[in-house]
Amino acid sequence: xxxxxxxxxxxxxxxxxxxxxxxxxxxxxPSTTLYEITPKxxxxxSKIRNLKDxxxxxxKADSVRIIAPIPGKGTVGIEVPNKEREILNIxxxxxxxxxxxxxxxxxxxxGETITGDILMADxxxxxxxxxxxxxxxxxxxxxxxxxxxLMSKRTPNEMKLVLIDPKQVEFGMYSPLDKSYLxxxxxNDAASAQNMLCxxxxxxxxxxxxxxxAKVRNIKEYNAIVPTEEKMQxxxxxxxxxxxxxxxxxxxxxxxxxxxxxxxxxxxxxxxxSTQRPSVKIVTGDIKANFPVRIAFRTTTSTDSRVVLGKKxxxxxxxxxxxxxxxxxxxxxxxxxYTSTEDVADxxxxxxxKYDGTVTACPIxxxxxxxxxxxxxxxxEKRRIIQKRKDEYREELLKHTYKPSxxxxxxxxxxxxx
Length: 418
What we know:
The protein is α/β, with parallel strands linked by helices. It has helices at residues 6-16, 45-49, 52-59, 90-94, 97-100, 139-153, 190-214, 219-225, 242-249, 251-263, 285-290, 302-309, 341-354, 369-398, 406-414, and strands spanning 21-28, 32-39, 65-67, 76-81, 107-113, 118-122, 129-132, 159-164, 234-239, 269-275, 293-297, 322-326, 331-336.
């Protein structure tokens, strides 16, 4: 007896629940297969939407995702994880015709869709990207894929990177690029990250002054009229664990990021945030408003999926790079390309040798020692003012008729209250 295919089994399950099927088209991707079903007239779409668990059991799948209806089509999509995954390597993406022939300013080649198309987007048009998902679902691999696709298309004279890595283990491999692509050595602590974001805000304002003086509106128009040595470089800021920075630096970190995200697009400064904590305290309304393009890897709950995408779905992904790409047009399911540690190491070694001594220095004058000295002096002045206020408060406290015991005073001092 011939074994039934998943397509036949899908039709049998739907007809068992009295859902007539006119036709079924199958689109097989690297990790997921999309069954595009055209129901017969009179079938309620909500009835198909409610059969998610029954279809998963019938197909012996971990989970299924139902798109009812598929936007712009008169069909319903049922996405089922493949029993055998295909490994999608970064080489196949970077060697694709779409990537090689693209005219995007900052092409982010991310992976491959269910229909076999290369998923690629221009960071300059996004203009900022938020990546979220549970631990171990592919965020760091996705960041490496995006970084390699950017550096493979843009030279160090056209683009610079600022890498912020609170975990201290993800971006260390890129340290040898400090004389080419990196505008500053990889940053590992919250205090340095906050200082760097302040520097980028000042650089953003300086660039706007240059645009104003040149009577142009954006970086493309500016670079088209100035000599090569005066052209602005794109600046891409990548933060690997945004949630950890917020936990340490609080609201001020979010305010700096939002300020950059709101204004920096026209002057060629773009941000990529990644977090494993897609909660409302981390991915706030201000962050979502300024990061309209988002990538969701598998989340632990549907609540986290709603925070990132505004709807459920990410909790049903199969992991290992399975992702949802969300922009103003809609949501696309894709498989993120796999970038191994060896791929990154080989790329960094080849790039270091290729651009050794041939790169224009980073134009961010605020990274100069003079500015760093001025920033340190301002920080010292802030500490002096805070200490002075503490001393004044302690003196005022001791003037009261009630005399606190010396032990209470010592405890308050040790706690930093006075």
